[in-house]
Amino acid sequence: MATTTATEEAYVLKVDSFFGPVSRNVNRAAARDPRPGEISVIDVSRIFSDKLSDRQAVADKVRKACKDIGFFYVTNHGIPDSVAKAAVDSTLEFFRQPLEIKQEVHFDHEIEGYTGRNNEQINKTEPIDTYEKFKLQYRPSMDPTSKLPGYPTGGVYQEFPWEKTATVPSFQPAMIDSFTSRLLLGRRLLRICALALDLPETYFDEMVAQPFAGLALNYFPTPKNIPTGTDGEESIEHVGLGSHTDFGLITLLWQDHPGLQVLSPGGDWIKVNPIPDTLICNLGDLMALITNGRFISDVHRARNVSKDERVSMPFFLGVGGKVKIEIVPTCVDPEAEKAPWEGMLAVDWTRKRQAACKVENTGKGAFQV
């Protein structure tokens, strides 16, 4: 259950962060629809324009969304519908298989591969998460811009054992296409974020040349016996994916059914329902950190509130391991005697952030450092 009661109308939600537990007052009212303009729908077609003025116009809209709530929809993003359809069809086919087949793609380190339901608790003050997932990490072989065969600091990438997913022949090509398309879009959007921060447009380019990035497939089975409150809304004890913030710079999410909810500054859960032909972009803790809090990494959760199985596919884009991260020049407080935190390598940030939210990491993932 999500922590101490503040009043009969609200409760205190604790979320782990790099700086320690953060508390938010949350209204007990049912999740509501967004108010006009609360979660922007941004046409990003002009990010592909050769004109800086076109790209800057998108950046101006992105800036407001990043400062207000850290979530926005992107439309006209350039990823073909066929890529999303192939990914979701293959995802459903994979997760509908018998458990013993899916477990063939389970690895002890849990950085990649399949993990069954009731095996993770992303928020320690809430019940265990009830979804299944599959995770895939970045490799140069999935990056059409990469010219390097391995990790530039001396590690060696290992290819994913795709033969273990051969029971779904379409799975490998669909996942690689989905990963690659969102990697390229994510890099474009980071250029827009740079413009929104009054930085050189290419400021983030080297940081994500070989990024810490991953694609997750989240599968929420058809809900059964969901506990509800007196207003008919699911109770706070029911969790699909618990309340949390993301680690990296940005996340690009595709979802097929309602379920995503983001916490407003006033403590309301806001429904972020799917809109056809859009992706949802939200900021992660690393973006909030390097912008000195100017851009927001907001708390969100996911619940299967439909009567059907639900799929969401978030793509997480962060900074490569040996890149130094620090507050960007345009967000340094000129009146502060010293920075609120010291610069560090991205790999150290990731390890500390994982430790802060008690994520167990017993393996080395896609590459060895």
From TrEMBL:
Amino-acid biosynthesis as UniProt keyword: no
Listed InterPro entries: DIOX_N, IPNS-like_FE2OG_OXY, IPNS-like_sf, Oxoglu/Fe-dep_dioxygenase_dom
Fe2OG dioxygenase domain sequence ranges: 211-319
One Gene Ontology term from the biological process aspect of the record: small molecule biosynthetic process
Taxonomic superkingdom: Eukaryota
Alphabetically ordered keywords of this record: Iron, Metal-binding, Oxidoreductase
MF annotations from Gene Ontology: metal ion binding; oxidoreductase activity
Family per record: Belongs to the iron/ascorbate-dependent oxidoreductase family.
Protein name, as recorded: 2OG-Fe(II) oxygenase superfamily protein
Source organism of the structure: Hyaloscypha bicolor E
